[in-house]
Structures are given as C-alpha cells and as structure tokens.
Amino acid sequence: MHALVRDWRTAPLAAADRALCALAAKLTHHQAQMTPGDLDALRGHGFDDRAIHDAVQVIGYFNYINRIAHGLGVEPETFVRPWGQP
C-alpha cells in the first residue's frame, strides 16, 4: 500500500489497476485531453461501461470535494492520522 501512495507508476499493480490509476491521473490533471481512447484502454482490461462510469463518478467526486475543502480552507479532521503513523 505504501508503494501505491508514494507513486502508483512504480507500485506493483495489476495491469487493470495501473490502467485505472492512469485514467484517474489524466482525469485529475489533464481532463481537457481526455479522449475515447482513454476509455477504450480500460475496456481492453475488462472494464465494462458501468464500471467505467462508476470509476469516473468516484474520481470526479474526489476531485470536486477536495477543491471545495481547499477552497473553503477546511482543515483535516484531527482524528485522521498522517499516513504511516499508528
């Protein structure tokens, strides 16, 4: 799990998980560059249209809620420990 948090590109992931992470990164950082080929890449790893729809919804939601929280200056909950701390 730590390898995934550090850098998903070098983490030991299955090809389908790596494709999903690539979609999430592109949709988050370069959404205007999305093409039908990005979705076809997921289909090539066995994702059906429902799974792709659900993934895009979750990715979009997290992007949205993080921007709302940052825009309003919401502080992280005190009960959430930084990654790697017991």
Offer a concise description of the structure.
The protein has helices at 2-6, 15-29, 36-43, 49-72. By secondary structure, it is mainly α. Helix 2 (15-29) runs antiparallel to helix 3 and helix 2 (15-29) packs across helix 4.
What can you see in these coordinates?
It is built from 4 helices and no strands. The chain is an all-alpha fold and 86 residues long. The chain has a domain of 59 residues: AhpD-like (Up-down Bundle), CATH 1.20.1290.10. Helix 2 runs antiparallel to helix 3. The radius of gyration is 15 Å and the shape is globular. The protein starts with a helix and ends in a 14-residue tail after the last helix.
